[in-house]
Specification:
3-stranded mixed sheet, about 230 residues, alpha/beta, globular, Rossmann fold, 10 strands, 7-stranded parallel sheet
């Protein structure tokens, strides 16, 4: 199975959710996380200038045993197509991105960059493509990672609509950084998000999960997702 992972914006917690989902699926068989294009990292470096791990390095840290594939890398922390242009490097090719994903083993999670309409690269006609386009090529559903706080209704509904326009099924919404003591907005969003998007909330990743020891993160990850939904993926 191939499953895309996108966010309602950059910095929403997409990589932590990808790691949690990968760890939760590992008991069912091999899992590969593919990052078609990583930006903001020098060649060969696992950390950026601020000491942050690259996305695949973070996944590998939090979910030991998961296979990771980073296809292309660009040095500036920008949208992949912009970063490629500024670096004078060939951009990610749409057909090549699809081929990389299809070569991956086991259950495959494809992590995009930023939000769903961020330009990843170019197709053979030099037309920009997005994660929504890549998911359509792959026939893959996509999980949307959303912040649980105020403002998420608009961001999440726009993301789900963009997937629908591309002919891509939204497999569900996962809330990142779920607080230990949810406020009014978070509690209401649990009810309102499925109503406005038409898709279920299938997981809640607790706030601070990224700081857990890897063995605790990996062992607890399954409990953060809807059990029936997870079983359907496995």
């Amino acid at each position: 199975m191939i499953l895309g992972v996108t966010g309602t914006s950059t910095g929403v917690g997409k990589t932590v959710v990808t790691a949690a989902l990968a760890a939760a699926l590992l008991p069912s068989g091999p899992v590969t996380v593919v990052k078609p294009a990583q930006t903001g990292f020098a060649a060969g470096a696992d950390r950026d200038e601020d000491g942050q791990l690259s996305d695949v390095a973070e996944v590998a840290r939090l979910a030991p045993g998961v296979i990771t594939v980073e296809h292309l890398r660009f040095p500036e922390p920008l949208a992949p197509l912009t970063a490629a242009r500024r670096a004078g490097l060939p951009p990610l090719d749409r057909a090549e991105a699809e081929a990389v994903v299809r070569r991956a083993a086991g259950t495959v999670l494809v992590e995009g960059a930023g939000g769903v309409l961020v330009r990843l690269g170019l197709d053979r006609n030099r037309t920009p493509f997005t994660l929504a386009d890549l998911a359509a090529d792959l026939g893959a559903p996509v999980v949307v990672v959303a912040d649980p706080a105020l403002g998420t209704l608009n961001h999440t509904e726009l993301t789900v609509r963009a997937l629908a326009v591309a002919g891509v099924v939204c497999a569900g919404v996962v809330l990142s950084r779920w607080p230990e003591a949810p406020g009014l907005a978070e509690r209401c969003n649990l009810v309102d998000l499925p109503e406005v998007t038409g898709v279920p909330i299938v997981g809640r990743i607790p706030d601070g999960a990224v700081a857990l020891p890897a063995e605790v993160f990996a062992a607890t990850a399954r409990s953060w997702f809807d059990a029936a939904w997870l079983a359907g993926l496995g």
